[in-house]
Amino acid sequence: EGGGAYIGAGGLVTSCVIEKNRAYRGGGVRMSDATGARVENSIIRDNWAEREGGGVMIYHVGTVNNCLIAGNACDGNGGGAHVDYGSYSGSQQVFFNNCTIVGNTAGQNGGVGYIINGGDYRNTIIWGNTNGNWSGGTYTYSCTTPLPGGVGNTASDPKFVDPTAGDYGLGAGSPCSNAGNNALVVGGLDVVGRSRIVSGKVDIGAFEAPEIALIVTAWAEQTKEKQPLFLELNLIDGSHIIGISRVDSVPVQTSYARMNVSLKQIRTMKIGKDREMESFDLQNGDKFNGVSDLG
């Protein structure tokens, strides 16, 4: 049992990719009476279990923080995760904090399943799993459907960036952005190492959305040299603005040079809210990061 990792009391698995394992229970990870044990900042994907917990199986005690659990399968119950008697010790001892449990399959409860009682899912997304997203357990500031009881939950589409390509970051307008509970955050980094609580309030799920103030797209009719240059602005608050630019280039300081980049060369420019770094995607396919002096 525990095809990728079998974890007992006090154990720690962190910053790992656990994939393509097989077991009777806990295809990726099995935790058993694992007091003080944690799986953190890891990706658990494409594992298989015959009985329970294609991705994760927890017996009585165990904690999973800031993890992506995706694409796992189980012939029995709980494709993403399965919890067996999460309050065996008299109080809840199984926790999933800021996890994304998505795209898993099982005979029953493709997302999360349980025996006797389940886990406590906090700041967690459970979405797009076959044969049910969840069964049993408690849910707080989490995103899943059908909507469970509990504080701060939502059944709205989390709007992943590109789920068909395996990108489960939060896209524009996601209801999970800045929708979690800071008091429930465990650890300072998300699953890919970005800082948590970027914009004052934690995101729901394993991925903290990067803080982008605006995206600038520049275009003009290339056949007319005197054609005004238009800018399209997509602001962080969802506003959309189109107008004529009063400048034709952007001064940029990169790590290796200072340059003026013509707006006609820019496909998109993403400007961080803190203005510490911008990313540039040029018409010729080049990409680079730098700091602009736009004022």
What does it look like?
With 295 residues, the chain is mainly beta. 0% of the residues lie in helices and 43% in strands. It has no helices and 31 strands. Strands 26-25-24-29-30-31-27-28 form an eight-stranded antiparallel β-sheet, with no helix packed on it. Strands 2-6-10-14-18-20 form a six-stranded parallel β-sheet, with no helix packed on it. The chain has a six-stranded parallel β-sheet with strand order 3-7-11-15-19-21, with no helix packed on it. The model has no long low-confidence stretch (mean pLDDT 87).
Shape: elongated
Q: Main β-sheet: number of strands, strand sense, barrel status?
A: 8 strands, antiparallel
Unreliable spans are none
Give the strand line-up of the largest sheet.
26-25-24-29-30-31-27-28
Count of alpha/pi helices: 0
What keyword list fits this structure?
295 residues; mainly beta; six-stranded parallel beta sheet
In short:
With 295 residues, this protein is mostly beta strands. The protein is built from no helices and 31 strands.
